[in-house]
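Worked Example 4.2. Consider the chain below.
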Amino acid sequence: MEVALGLVLPIFGVIGFGYAAARSKLLGPTAIDGLDTYVFTFAMPALLFRNLAHTEFPSTLPWGLWLSYYGAMLAVWAAGSLVAFFLLRRPSSDSVMLGFGCGQGNTIMLGLPIILTGFGPEAGTPVFLILAFHGIILFTIATFLLELTRVREGVAQPSFQAILKEGLVNTAKNPVIIGIAGGVIYGQLGVPLPAVVDGSLEMVARSAIPCALFVLGGMLTRYSIRRSVGAASLTSFFKLVAHPALVFVLAQFVFGLEPLWVAAATILAGMPTGVYSSILANRYQAAPGAASSAVVLSTAASLVTLTVLLGFFLSPS
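Applying the procedure from the previous section yields the following structure tokens:
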């Protein structure tokens, strides 16, 4: 547990610095947004591209990894939505959004830093394989369901083809996905990166993790924990406990993945609800208060849950 705390506390310390800088107004919203743009447009794609260009991938498609992670994600999404609809008596659109928060985690800003720091570059392979399809699966399904619930409220719905096309286009334009795809393609060529290019990418990549954590802290000042705490607690439980537990069972006992892949997939599933949940909730006006509260509540609670998860996987066997 001491090893886990030694890993988690510095990471949350950087998040705390970002929070303090934004809360004290030493850095205003424009500065935080600019740093966020740098992280997602340059630093994180550079990190992903460089790591993947040097990574040897498995010869067969990792169906066990994908089914473990995404099967669990869709299961907790469905369970969270059903609980919100039948027990909390939330409208259908709110229920979809609350379920979305149960499965959509902060994989880039928090997941990558924790897993790469704790388990080294080798853990990047299963994480990158999951992230390659993370956005398109989550956001296409969420958009389709949210548009579907709006039809029931008398609002016109775009066709499924239009929603899928939008999801594919947005995914293809995402710098993180471009970094992943570019790194995979270049790595398969078997050509070493030129020294100048590799050195430049390494310098930029080193800034990705601390900057992402700092930005996360700054962005947390924009969300409130006061609204719909009950619904936010439901989302946080499914995201921090049910999702990683189900991934672990599937990866370990159903598909028998190697230990490093089990650890990486489980810890990635244990990330708190991502800020995009609140953004999407505000866009559709579907439980925006609960989504905002879930981001803050789950991030705060993850200090404990991630310490437990990391302690479990990092402890000597």
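The chain has one domain: 2-309. Residues 124-152 form the longest helix (29 residues). Compare this with Example 4.1 before moving on.
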